């Protein structure tokens, strides 16, 4: 469960990107966060895995007070809270499999995976993760030879290999065409439904959010202006 209690985020430039947010997200939910550019969606998601520190309030993930984590505990915590970005964040000039193996070397990903130091168990888990997103046949292809949608699935496989409880996705389909976006959204849906992983996703395509998410949170100027079932979203969120 993810709990926001009166969470505010003020950036050093004085912008208050989140204003006393209160939220409860249960295990296994598929939540889409919608709102205009600059509304605070990205900030909201990035506070959950401590990419950003909150300024006021309290944020808990499975009863862990996220703001109180230090050093190694942050790294351990981030294995349970996977993150997917718009830009995939892959190492282009190497294989898909090695990119997924990065999941097992969080402290020094480039060194370890590029030098090929990993166990057979890790390799099997990485291949399983690729199978889960339907691109096992691309395991030995170079990342830069794949389409955008395939690259996003590699990123998803890398996150799955960490065995996360939660996946945070910051505009995961923003740079993909509509057909590819659908496939990637279906992967998220399957992961959510069959593996029970909680998904919290920023998305600016409202119609896509409505189609795939169970719950929609609308953000405007740092405040929650809508929170409910996808079916009941108001036109002007
Ligand atoms: P969204 O994801 O909805 O587009 P963001 O969370 O990126 O919104 O941004 C919310 C507000 O915070 C915006 O006004 C943005 O300019 C500001 N902001 C975001 N990141 C930073 C930062 N690192 N430093 C200062 N201001 C920021
Ligand atoms: P995205 O839409 O992917 O969140 P943005 O263009 O909003 O991308 O932000 C890109 C990066 O710049 C983010 O790390 C964000 O925190 C930072 N950023 C956004 N707005 C500002 C701002 N007003 N001042 C400083 N940094 C910002």
Shape: globular
Number of helical regions: 8
Distance between the termini: 25 Å
Ligands (ions, cofactors included): adenosine-5'-diphosphate
DSSP strand count: 10
What is the overall pLDDT average?
91
Poorly predicted runs of 5 or more residues: none
- Please indicate the percent range of residues in DSSP E strands (runs of 2 or more): 25-35%
Describe the largest sheet: 6 strands, mixed
Describe this structure in words.
This protein is of the alpha/beta class and 237 residues long. It has eight helices and ten strands. The strands form two sheets. A six-stranded mixed β-sheet has the order 6-7-8-3-9-10, with helices on both faces. Strands 2-1-4-5 form a four-stranded antiparallel β-sheet, with helices on one face. A hairpin with a 2-residue loop joins strand 4 and strand 5. Helix 5 (120-132) packs across helix 6 (148-161) and helix 6 (148-161) packs parallel to helix 7. The protein is globular. The two termini are 25 Å apart. One adenosine-5'-diphosphate is lined by residues 13, 42, 86, 171.
Question: What characteristics describe this protein?
Answer:
globular; binds adenosine-5'-diphosphate; 25% strand; 237 residues; single chain; four-stranded antiparallel sheet; 8 helices; 10 strands; alpha/beta
Give a summary of the structure in a few sentences.
The chain has 237 residues and is α/β, with parallel strands linked by helices.
């Amino acid at each position: 469960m993810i709990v926001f209690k009166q969470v505010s985020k003020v950036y050093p430039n004085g912008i208050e990107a989140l204003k006393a947010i209160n939220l409860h997200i249960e295990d296994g939910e598929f939540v889409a966060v919608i709102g205009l550019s600059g509304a605070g969606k990205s900030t909201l998601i990035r506070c959950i895995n401590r990419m950003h520190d909150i300024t006021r309030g309290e944020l808990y993930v499975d009863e862990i007070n996220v703001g109180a984590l230090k050093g190694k505990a942050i790294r351990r915590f981030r294995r349970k809270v996977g993150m997917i970005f718009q830009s995939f964040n892959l190492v282009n000039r190497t294989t898909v499999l090695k990119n997924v193996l990065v999941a097992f070397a969080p402290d020094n990903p480039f060194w370890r995976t590029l030098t090929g130091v990993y166990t057979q168990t890790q390799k099997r888990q990485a291949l399983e993760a690729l199978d889960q997103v339907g691109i096992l046949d691309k395991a030995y292809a170079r990342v830069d030879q794949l389409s955008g949608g395939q690259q996003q699935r590699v990123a998803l496989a890398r996150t799955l290999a960490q065995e996360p409880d939660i996946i945070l996705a910051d505009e995961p389909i923003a740079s993909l065409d509509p057909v590819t976006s659908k496939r990637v959204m279906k992967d998220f849906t399957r992961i959510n439904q069959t593996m029970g992983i909680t998904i919290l996703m920023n998305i600016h395509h409202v119609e896509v959010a409505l189609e795939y998410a169970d719950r929609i949170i609308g953000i405007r100027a740092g405040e929650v202006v809508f929170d409910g079932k996808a079916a009941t979203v108001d036109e002007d969120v």
